[in-house]
Each structure stands twice: as structure tokens, then as C-alpha cells.
User: Fold this.
Amino acid sequence: MSKLAELEDLRENVENCKRCSLWKTRNKAVFGEGPINAKIFLIGLGPGKEENIQGKPFVGPAGKFLNKLLKLAGIERKRVYITSVLKCYLPENKATLQQIKACKPYLDKQLAIIKPNLIIPLGSVAAKYVEKEFALEIGKISEAHAKPMQAKAFWGKVLIIPMYHPAAALRNGALRRTIEEDWKSIGNLLKSR
Ligand code: SF4
Assistant:
């Protein structure tokens, strides 16, 4: 089976999934999007209201801010694979451990298919996933943000850069400048590699 077929197969599984209670609140599952050969892989928390309507990741207010951040880093969104820990609408914007565990195999498989060399977890839930998956010590996002770490995946070396979730700036305006500076620093790092 080709990588594309594998990914499409997985998408179909997600769209029909009832592994946790979140299937009841979804309008459209948000599987993720981006090129199959993407080098950069972004992981958010889960779909919000707008994403649930459109079935696409980061298309609401946080997505608009993410677009700006990607520009600041000189990264074209169309070259990045974007997905999230949870694939179905989170009405309270919070996920339980049970829901995270139920959805984990999908994200595991997406990573295994795409095999990126830079993974950017956005926010603490995504950072926690990456921490466990790659046996890292990331700790609190307030301390770990924008600090690159090396990890080893079965497909080779991977750079991990934990970042604040873009929505954090919408909830707390004081963080906006920090988050923008963080993304500029990613841009500088990528230019120097
Ligand atoms: S959030 Fe994940 S595990 Fe839960 S129903 Fe949706 S696809 Fe399935």
C-alpha cells in the first residue's frame, strides 16, 4: 500500500471512529492536512468550533494567528503537515486522559507515515504526547517553549521544538509578543541549518 493510500485509509477510520465519546460532538472529524513528504509536523490539541464545521485544522481564530506565526518564521503553511492529538470537536477545549489514549494510535500512525524531521507540539497536551513518545523531558511549556531538543525516531533523528499553542495568545494578550518572538527564533534556526 502506498503512503498516500495508508493515510487515506487512516482518515476514513478517523471519520468513522467511535473509540471515545467525542464522536458524539463532532460534525466533521479533523484528520489533518499537509503534504505526505512534509518535513515539518505541527501538533495541536484538537478541533475547535470552526474546525468542526470545516473539517480542517487551524481554520478558526487560533488558526489565523498560526498563519501569521508561520509567516514570521518564513514557513509556508502548504509545506507543513498539521494535525492534533484529538481529531473530534472538544466542546470544552479540554480532553480527558481516556480520550487522549483512545485517539493516540491515529497520531502515532500519521507520524510514522509522514516521518518528519521537525516536530512542533503546540501547547501542553501535544508537548506531553511528544514527551512520552520520544522519551524526552519537556516539562512545563512555559519553560520549554522554543527550546529545540533532539529526539530519535525509528526513521532517524528528529528535532522537537515545543511551542505555546497559538490560542494562548488569544486568551492572554501578554503572551502574544513572546509567541511571536518564539516563531521568529524558529525561522532563524531553520535558516542556519
Ligand atoms: S477523538 Fe479520536 S478516538 Fe475519539 S472519536 Fe474522535 S477520532 Fe475517535
